[in-house]
Amino acid sequence: MITPRPNPATFIDEAAIAALLAPEKPPEPQRVRELLAKARHLDGLAADEVATLAAVEEPALLEELFDAARQVKEDIYGNRLVLFAPLYISNHCHNECSYCAFRARNDSLTRRKLSLAEIAAETRALIDQGHKRVLLVAGEAGAPKDVDDVLQAIDTISRTRSGRSEIRRVNVNIAPLETKDFRRLLAARIGTYQLFQETYHRATYASVHLGGRKRDYDWRLTVMDRAMEAGVEDVGIGVLFGLYDWRFELLAMMQHIRHLEEVFGVGPHTISVPRLEPATGSRLAHHPPHAVSDADFYKIIALLRLAVPYTGIIMSTRETAQVRRETFALGVSQISAGSRTDPGGYTGASETRHRAQFQLGDHRSLDEIIRDLATLGYVPSFCTACYRLGRTGADFMDLAKPGLIKRHCGPNALSSLAEYLADYASSRTRQAWEPLTEGVLRGMDSTARATSRRLLARVQAHERDVFV
Ligand code: SAM
Ligand code: SF4
Description:
Distance between the termini: 31 Å
Shape: globular
Structural class: alpha/beta
Bound molecules: S-adenosylmethionine, iron/sulfur cluster
Number of strands: 11
CATH superfamily of the largest domain: Aldolase class I
CATH class of the largest domain: Alpha Beta
Oligomer: single chain
Helix content: 40-55%
CATH topology of the largest domain: TIM Barrel
Strand content: 5-15%
Number of domains: 2
């Protein structure tokens, strides 16, 4: 049963966060090691424990923290990385977020809203690259029209075919909705509903959101409550790192997660960790007020991995190839690849900079990234099985927590990769992967290995979309 929603002001408690961040002395190594031992058992961490670990600076102790994160990542996710691409359908926006190129008063941006035919063309371009999952993204141009547009776009993406394939999961990152509109999204079979609070710090939030509906902090903060009330089980949260002190944001995120767990019995399915990137027409984006160094960025990812071991962590192409590589072992479980942030970018001419939301750090194609993952020892996965078999929300966690999900994920990752290699990969990428499959199979337990061999045989026999 759903308990009444508490006042949002009580679930983000700035005074409590300030108190946790107050100690000026570094934490005792013994206490740090106790916490790392707890986290290594996959029990997660409380906010005060995250605060203690966030204060670790001593290099050797920090290395122990990273080691623990690597172990948790390995225990739960093994060497899999799920791949997706964003699909921007419009860069029109009524809001005035001072860090974003899409903001209403940015005259240097060329505006574009894709027609359904253009959305179908973009979808075909992504299918032809080998993608199976997209994240639909849009500016906020005003409800209720936004919702209708998004529903039509989801329908178009889901019905578009190219060759023998299709997009099998559509996640969405769109402005907050009313509960009744979330019910419509749910009926359209969306995957994850994703939205970033940007900053949980009220005063900072007010100072960077200068116009439009997005100025309302509470409307945004309570969005996941409305989504979950409507029955959307997989929700994704995030912070735009660089706007305010990352330590504060991390602890506020912990409060948000605990709130969702208390009220709905399950926390977020994913957490995104975007860092502020340069954007045309935004001074703020070029000069982040609380820029997060690479070293702190790695710490954020490791802390999240330890604190909420079963929640996916998403790494976008905002980051460079090198930074992304470093984060895989520390906890990242999903990555975007071959991304464009300009509507029409997958099918359009090359000069689309003036329509893009921000600068990308990783410009490599999906094929290049899959080849790189071969050398790094990660198995790319295009799997969409859980959501299509109803393994979402609490049901997913019930499987994930005792480690049972591994028996599905490993075989599904490998069969979806085999499908990619057969249908879309360049010969270089296929050759890079050919000698590796046996090694991946050997790394599975005997049950998963037997399942995997069966699935691979079906892909070899030209069957597609096979999963357990
Ligand atoms: N318009 C909706 C909203 O703001 O929630 C949804 C899509 S918005 C295009 C997606 C996300 O892009 C935002 O939530 C924000 O965190 C991120 N973003 C905006 N400007 C950025 C920048 N300069 N660098 C990195 N990420 C940025
Ligand atoms: Fe619009 Fe979203 Fe960009 Fe803000 S972040 S200006 S709401 S697209």
